[in-house]
Design goal:
There is one protein chain. This protein folds into three domains: about 10-120, Beta-Lactamase (2-Layer Sandwich); about 125-200; about 205-360, Histidine kinase-like ATPase, C-terminal domain (Heat Shock Protein 90, 2-Layer Sandwich), CATH 3.30.565. The chain has eleven helices and 14 strands. The chain has helices spanning about 15-20, 40-45, 50-55, 60, 70-80, 120-150, 150-165, 170-195, 210-220, 245-265, 330-340; strands spanning about 25-30, 35-40, 85-90, 95-105, 115-120, 205-210, 230-235, 240-245, 270-280, 285, 290-295, 295-305, 345-350, 355-360. A hairpin with a 7-residue loop joins strand 4 and strand 5. Helix 7 packs antiparallel against helix 8, helix 9 (about 210-220) crosses helix 10 (about 245-265) and helix 10 runs antiparallel to helix 11.
Length: about 375
């Protein structure tokens, strides 16, 4: 089945700006001289620039002088009909390379003007991965329950037997019994960590100042595992309260910062950037209902390390997946589980010198307030 590109052919002047603003894909209006004359909120998010700043730029300055989208605009205006290109790489200075389907429609009554739509291809893939996280979370819950029952009980017997043998063992044999006890303890601790996946109790959501959480995490980091890392904050001071559990959110962002610090370990220019922003327009369908949860609060942890290995990016939040030689592969799985319990999402954008773990969470609402 052939794909039909979404197109918009109505004149900009004939459409209320509010209608264009409501479209979830990035829209840029370009006049005949190549200047940006319109940008909707999705375009602000796509380019990580405000609409007022975008409208002071030429369209070519946003891309590059020889970018294929510019040729697409010219083609649409020459033929007087919409033109589309799939899988176009768009390099955004502050966000890196993004892959998007681009549709260009000439604007009637405005000679040379066009409306350009950018539909990021990875959005659907990210949502698929987030739904997959929910599905494998159920499987992990069952696995964890089995581990707790079928492994911990006999493990205690093995450890107890080793301690009994040690009482009458020679000094050389005692080193072996101690090794048995140490390995039994290590396995028990691993099973204890997986038991978090069996906890289905609802979280007592309270209004949380996410900046207090991030500052607490930063304080822990700079006094221990990230003493040689430069931290930078880019906070939105007007951000409303997150609906969350403070201790669990501390666990989430402490783990993300620890991973970032491990990634930049040994670099002379090692840095971690903590960022918050209000990004309206992102919703998540709530299981078993027709309701959609708004997730406008975006919290990011960014580092300038070598990046996540390409082979791990698709399965990064699954349990027992790790690139660390001594890692257990549970940290990010637990992080994803806690974020899911909060009704939020988490994803990762990674390339050399720029890895971003981005979480989206709901705003705290008092009883009776609308949540979507």
């Amino acid at each position: 089945m052939s794909r039909v590109a979404p197109t918009l052919t109505a004149p900009i002047a004939a459409l209320p700006e509010a209608l264009l603003a409501a479209i979830p894909h990035a829209l840029i209006g370009v006049d005949g001289a190549g200047a940006v004359i319109f940008a909707n909120p999705a375009a602000e998010q796509f380019f990580d620039l405000s609409a007022s700043f975008l409208k002071r730029q030429s369209f070519a300055a946003l891309l590059s002088a020889d970018h294929p989208v510019l040729a697409l605009v010219q083609q649409a205006n020459t033929r007087g009909m919409a033109a589309s290109e799939y899988g176009v790489e768009i390099v955004v200075p502050r966000l890196g390379a993004r892959n998007a389907d681009v549709s260009v429609s000439p604007v009637a009554d405005l000679a040379g003007a066009a409306l350009v739509m950018f539909q990021e291809r990875s959005n659907a893939q990210k949502m698929d991965r987030q739904l997959t996280q929910i599905h494998w979370g159920n499987s992990v819950s069952s696995m964890a329950a089995i581990l707790a029952h079928e492994i911990k009980n006999p493990l205690a017997g093995i450890r107890g037997a080793a301690q009994l043998i040690e009482q009458n063992a020679s000094e050389s044999d005692r080193s072996l019994t101690r090794l048995i006890c140490e390995e039994a303890d290590r396995i028990r601790n691993l099973v204890d960590r997986t038991e978090i996946f069996t906890d289905h109790r609802p979280i007592d959501l309270k209004p949380i100042n996410i900046h207090e959480v991030l500052e607490h995490v930063k304080k822990l980091a700079v006094t221990s595992f990230a003493r040689l890392v430069a931290f930078h904050e880019n906070y939105d001071p007007s951000l409303p309260a997150v609906a969350g559990d403070k201790e669990r959110l501390i666990q989430v962002f402490l783990n993300l910062v620890k991973n970032a610090a491990d990634s930049v370990n040994g670099q002379n220019d090692a840095e971690i950037i903590l960022q918050t922003a209000f990004r309206p327009g992102v919703h998540l369908a709530m299981a078993g209902t027709r309701n959609r949860q708004a997730l406008p609060l975006e919290i990011s942890v960014r580092d300038n390390g070598p990046g996540v290995p390409a082979g791990l990016r698709e399965t990064l939040f699954e349990p027992f997946v790790t690139s660390k030689a001594k890692g257990q592969g549970l940290g990010l799985a637990i992080t994803a589980k806690i974020i899911a319990d909060h009704g939020g999402t988490i994803d990762c954008l990674s390339e050399p010198r720029r890895t971003v773990f981005r979480t989206r969470l709901p705003v705290y609402r008092t009883h009776g307030e609308r949540r979507n």
